[in-house]
Amino acid sequence: MKHKKKDRPCLNNHIPLKPKPLARGMTVDEVVESSLFSFNAGTFRKACELFAKHIVKKDVRIGVSLAGALVPAGIGRSCLIPLIKAGFIDWIVSTGANLYHDLHYVLGYDFREGRSVVDDEGLRENGIIRIYDIFLDYDALLDTDNFVRETLRRNRSSLPNPCSSADIHALLGKEIVKIKPELKDESLLAVAYEAGIPVHTSSPADSSIGMNVAALMLEGKPIPMDTHQDINEVTSYVYDVKKKGGKSAVLLLGGGSPKNFVLQTEPHIQEVLGLPEAGHDFFIQFTDARPDTGGLSGATPSEAVSWGKIDPSALSKTIVSYGDCSLMLPFFVSYVLNRSEARSMSGLYDKRNRLVQQLKNDYRKTGSFKKS
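Given the sequence above, the corresponding structure tokens read:
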């Protein structure tokens, strides 16, 4: 049976694939635009172009999730700090481990290039920690633990009650700026603190920072942290910009709990709080997970639409680029920095109380809100 002509795809509506020969002296952005067209290369180019051409607009609020061991791999200093300084990150959700390892740098410890196939028993005997092919002095853990506990001991009375994990991380960043000003640009936490970027963790107990908070409880010096405060704070960032007519973008580096914590802001607005919203407007994820094994369950863009996480009308502005974050992100950031003008920083950290109050006030007006 012949299809009607109007039902047939028209080649004229599609971009021709015309790769250019690579040449000496080409920049990263030139290589991306001239050579990456199909398969994972094509999705990576589209992610670069989507971020540089549409997401970095002034009316878009950008949330970033950070999983894996990307900070020990150098991604914090090489990629995330430049994005923050360019104004391209407004809020962050990370595993606690990445933030803990960020502290080693300013305490005088380096990560060293190691090997993934090695005698781990021998490493243990010599006081060496291994993160795949990254080596670290065991003393770095002990000194970092002491730094975290001592900083929290001295400053616990200044924390809000309850506080969110963003307050803890800002306190650590502030301490770095105070005691190591010459190294503050080496630390993701310090740079985020000075830029007013709130840094949250979705599972604060699942890291060495959390273990040190637990130790303070045994000392009778508990930290008044409540992760549910984090839920309302990150949700308020999204709700605020959407209420003002702006857009929300998410850049997901890897998966795990940080990814879901970023995405669940929309179901919290719509499903739980009963506030009118349609979902995030832009979605970029770099991942090596697969949906058919459950690794991307609930979080591919089309599946996320069913949860209300992504605006159905925004599916054309969602991209999953499959591959290794530690390999793709440096090229992505280089492209974005070359192709985009810097933005002013939103300073959400100091606006949190007002934004959460706005969220609370609007929730009070819905049928879901129950007075005590």
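The longest strand covers residues 60-66. Try to locate this feature in the token string yourself.
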